[in-house]
Specification:
alpha+beta, SH3 type barrels, 10-stranded antiparallel β-sheet, two-stranded antiparallel sheet, 4 helices, globular
């Protein structure tokens, strides 16, 4: 029994410990100067707004804020780029869903995680369990892939209003416009879900197809 408890504790603690370790990486200053060293950031909940850096194991730790570095990466693991983007600020909480199917865009400077790079880049942004994905073709600006849940109230002929959740899946049309690989079928676009796995898969397929 004790062995099982310790195994469970290790299973829960090890991921947390791995996030708290300094790892080899780099960051780019606002002047595009590449600084290599050891980096640590909190990746458990939201995209970071700062990270910790030290030149070597014995060096002092400094905090690098978002306005000081336009990019940072941990080698072989993760990469973030700073970008000023239009991001949907609509609530995803069921009780606060809007009746407007259109996104409510606000301008915001954030660190986006780079998920795929190539002819088309894919990025993600997470804030308070709200997942947003962004896309960029070469020589174009980063745009959010739009997915939004919204409420429709059907009155009909009854006295009781019926609230129904609808989905704005405009991201599928955006991907059709961006992705130039003819081998990707319409059926695949229709089946797409607004999940990281699905989006990475189709972007990767497109980029490999374009490069062949």
């Amino acid at each position: 029994m004790k062995i099982q408890i310790w195994s469970l504790l290790l299973f829960l603690i090890l991921p947390v410990l791995s996030f708290s370790q300094f790892k080899k990486g780099y960051y780019l200053t606002n002047d595009s100067v590449k600084i290599e060293g050891l980096i640590k950031y909190n990746s458990l909940k939201n995209n970071p707004v700062k990270f910790k850096f030290k030149k070597s194991e014995d060096s002092e730790i400094s905090k690098i804020h978002q306005n000081e570095a336009k990019e940072f990466s941990i080698y072989g693991d993760v990469k973030f780029v700073r970008a000023n983007v239009m991001i949907d600020s609509s609530s995803i909480v069921l009780e606060r869903l809007s009746a407007d199917r259109n996104p409510k865009f606000v301008s915001k400077e954030v660190y986006l995680e780079v998920l795929e790079e190539g002819a088309v880049n894919l990025y993600s942004y997470i804030h308070q369990k709200n997942y947003k994905y962004f896309i960029r073709a070469k020589n174009e600006e980063i745009q959010q892939l739009v997915y939004k849940r919204y409420l429709v109230i059907n009155t009909g002929n009854t006295l009781r209003h019926r609230r129904e959740i609808k989905h704005n899946n405009y991201f599928k049309q955006q991907l059709k416009n961006y992705l130039k690989c003819n081998a990707i079928s319409l059926k695949k676009f229709k089946k797409l879900k607004y999940f990281k796995k699905d989006l990475r898969e189709i972007i990767k397929e497109n980029n490999q197809c374009i490069n062949e």
